[in-house]
Amino acid sequence: MFNSTSTPRTELKEAVDAVVNSFAKHTQAFGRVNVVEALQEFWQMKHDRGANLKNGAVVVYECINTPAPPYVCYVTLPGGSSFGSLHDCPTKAEARRSAAKIALMNSVFNEHPSRLISDDFIDRAVQQAQGSFRCTTEDSHRPDTAIGAFRFMLEQNRGRSMLEFQELMTVFQLLHWNGSLRAMKERHCSRQEVVDHYSHRALDDDMRSQMALDWIAREHDAPETISNHLHKALDELNSARKAGKELRFPKEKRDILQLALSQLPQSHSFNGNYEDISTA
Predict the structure, then answer these.
(1) CB proximity list for 49: less than 8 A, separation 6 or greater
(2) Residue 150 located in a structural domain
(3) Three-class HEC string of 197-214
(4) Res 144: pLDDT
(5) Best exposed site among 28, 146, 202, 227 by fewest CB in 10 Å?
(6) What's this protein's family per the entry (predicted)?
(7) What local confidence, expressed as pLDDT, does residue 220 receive?
(8) Distances from the Cα of 223 to the Cαs of 220, 232, 244, 258, in angstroms?
């Protein structure tokens, strides 16, 4: 996806506008392109051409419920990737358009051959991961290692794009963050068994509820655990959103922690900006 970590905000906005204008020309649109419609049309075309999308071509928008401006909106693409409005907006409609712009730019960029999961892509990704985790080439071919599991997941999704692969990656990021992978290892579940099982599990309300229960149990052992982690998750989400980064992992962490907090007795409170979202 578009790497905006080293791109100033003004350059990022110019890049987004350039992609939107290019899309308008290619679709023979006149005047100002409706980026919300363009984004939906883009994924509908991919679906119609046979792209393997778990949830069809549905693009989902979520707006933060606030009584007054500024407004923030998130958009989740059919493959599972999420993006958000680049700035706080004066209207919900503008926040929705801002989120659609960054999502459309990443969707178009994602079509480049370098973003498709091929044998060359897998080799490069695994080599980079080996450097980060100080693993050997031999480790990458063993299914009982983290790097081996990563290679296995990539190989199972050969031919898909990184945006279409995002939901599966987020599932394993959450399992690691939540401590579930460690718990399964302690129960002597092999990494291959875990990968095989969760490769076919959707990131749904049942999975979020189970993870929320784990955090409630931690809260009983150490009060304020959920609030402290929720503060961090919100900061991470807002920083990533304003930088134009992919947001599915921090957004799911926020949702799971908010769900856990909502199920605690009323004596537990959260001192911060609690983001309530609604489907737009």
Answers:
(1) none
(2) yes
(3) HHCCCCCCHHHHHHHHHH
(4) 59
(5) 28
(6) Belongs to the LIX1 family.
(7) 92
(8) 6, 16, 34, 15
